[in-house]
Write a structure and sequence with these properties.
The protein is of the alpha/beta class. It has helices spanning 33-41, 49-59, 74-88, 102-116, 132-140, 150-159, 176-179, 185-195, 234-244, 257-269, 283-294, 328-335, 356-366, 377-381, 384-412, 423-428, and strands spanning 2-4, 64-67, 95-98, 123-126, 145-148, 170-173, 208-211, 222-228, 250-253, 274-277, 300-303, 318-321, 345-351. Helix 2 (49-59) runs parallel beside helix 3 and helix 10 crosses helix 15. Bound molecules: adenosine-5'-triphosphate and magnesium ion.
Length: 439
């Protein structure tokens, strides 16, 4: 069993990073030739630090807690040993990867497919918010790898005939601290206690901690700034910054679905190519937004913390914390959406009169005092009128949107978009999930 990502109380001494290991190749780590070729084709010329640390131990079958900074290749650090082991002893339903968000599940599946395409690896993504019948069919084909969010996986374990995880050899929890926190408590307990019998120890057996960065570190090539402004000027400053840094790709984080939607509408009214991603959108819209942003058809992605973990979009240049994160740790994950895999990037955090304490906590956590992002206040103020007008339109659109949504909810019945188990509701509905037409 392998766990990846942060863990608050690791049980074993960490492995020091050995400098000379920097020159190691994937082959040196024990990765089989065909997978080394796959790495090569992805442009992975040499393993990253966490891959150097974790892969040989994972290949020995050790339980692992992996910690490394954002964008440092943790996915490959668990995917490669799993694929390697799968090649040695081919077997269906070989590994399960749990993730906290649906988008991350799709991304991890893409990584497995990219690394495993030449060896015919089949994976299935089992997440909420999309048709459950087609997932049952995919599970009936017994894929090698399942990548799942906890709630929907449990639904299938309870309701999909013939599907179980008794043969499972590898379990990965990506963003483990997030999966093991309270939101998924019931689901995780259920998975550990009832299903993965072999792994019933529910934790790790003599695990090795592979830590290649200090705990709460942001990456070196990330330039971080803040701006301190009155709350009522947030929109105007945002527009100013987007103009100043025009030509870049932005991820802008907001604290609520509503503000994400509102800000997206506001920016669109001002002619920006902005697109929202949040939990009140249908899953097809969520993936649609993400794909448009990934394909550079939109330059601004506005998101809640649903997008703060794990998403790997290499061309993101700037992360804006439009609403300051309430949990300081989320700050590190959010800003980690840029400056990935050795690239550089910028992060700008909006601090209002209400956010001072939260901001100080963030600075304390990352162990840095951040500089101010320079702004020309007179230029900012010249934008106020246009922004005020766009705000009015956005409010109107939001209201219309809300009413439309209410009507469609009354028509469609099922309008749920959460990660919770829907087994019960499924049964009530006679097993027929109505796909929600999202707005
Ligand atoms: N050995 C390698 N050489 C070059 N690039 C790599 C290597 N391994 C992974 N990458 C690339 O680095 C990027 C980041 O990888 P990944 O998403 O696994 O990071 P992560 O450590 O999981 O980050 P996060 O903490 O944000 O989840 C991806 O685009 C991936 O393709
Ligand atoms: Mg990751």
């Amino acid at each position: 069993m392998a766990a990846s990502e942060e863990h608050d109380s690791p049980t074993e001494a960490s492995q020091p990073v050995v400098e000379e290991e920097e020159t190691k190749t994937f082959k040196d780590l024990g990765v089989t030739d065909v997978l080394c070729e796959a790495c090569d084709q992805l442009g992975w010329t040499k393993p990253t630090k966490i891959q150097i640390e974790a892969i040989p131990l994972a290949l020995q079958g050790r339980d692992i807690i992996g910690l490394a900074e954002t964008g440092s290749g943790k996915t490959g650090a668990f995917a490669l040993p799993i694929l390697n082991a799968l090649l040695e002893t081919p077997q269906r339903l070989f590994a399960l990867v749990l993730t906290p968000t649906r988008e991350l599940a799709f991304q991890i599946s893409e990584q497995f497919e990219a690394l495993g395409s030449s060896i015919g690896v089949q994976s299935a993504v089992i997440v909420g918010g999309i048709d459950s019948m087609s997932q049952s069919l995919a599970l009936a084909k017994k894929p090698h790898i399942i990548i799942a969010t906890p709630g929907r996986l449990i639904d299938h374990l309870e309701n999909t005939k013939g599907f179980n995880l008794r043969a499972l050899k590898y379990l990965v929890m990506d963003e483990a601290d997030r999966i093991l926190n309270m939101d998924f408590e019931t689901e995780v307990r259920f998975l550990f206690q009832n299903l993965v019998q072999k792994l019933q120890r529910a934790a790790l057996k003599n695990p090795v901690k592979c830590a290649v960065s200090s705990k709460y570190q942001t990456v070196e090539k990330l330039q971080q700034y803040y701006i301190f402004i009155p709350s009522k000027f947030k929109d105007t400053y945002l527009v100013y910054i987007l103009n100043e840094l025009a030509g870049n790709s932005f991820m802008i984080f907001c604290s609520t679905c509503n503000n994400t939607q509102r800000t997206a509408l506001l920016l669109r009214n001002l002619g920006f190519t902005a697109i929202p991603l949040h939990g009140q959108m249908s899953q097809s819209k969520r993936l649609g937004s993400l794909n448009k942003f990934k394909a550079k058809a939109r330059s601004i992605l506005l998101a809640t913390d649903v997008a703060s973990r794990g998403l790997d979009i290499p061309h993101v240049d700037v992360v804006v914390n439009f609403d300051i994160p309430t949990h300081s740790k989320d700050y590190i994950h959010r800003v980690g959406r840029t400056a990935r895999a050795g690239r550089s990037g910028k992060a700008i955090t909006f601090v209002t009169q209400y956010d001072v304490e939260l901001f100080q906590r963030i600075e304390h956590l990352i162990g840095k005092k951040l500089p101010v992002f320079p702004t020309q206040d007179d230029e900012v103020m010249m934008l106020t009128e246009r922004v005020a007008e766009a705000q009015r339109f956005a409010r109107m659109e939001l209201r219309e949107h809300g009413e439309k949504k209410k009507r469609s909810r009354e028509d469609a019945g099922d309008n749920d978009d959460t990660e919770g188990a829907i087994g019960v509701r499924n049964k009530v509905a006679g097993g027929k999930m109505k796909k929600r037409k999202g707005r």
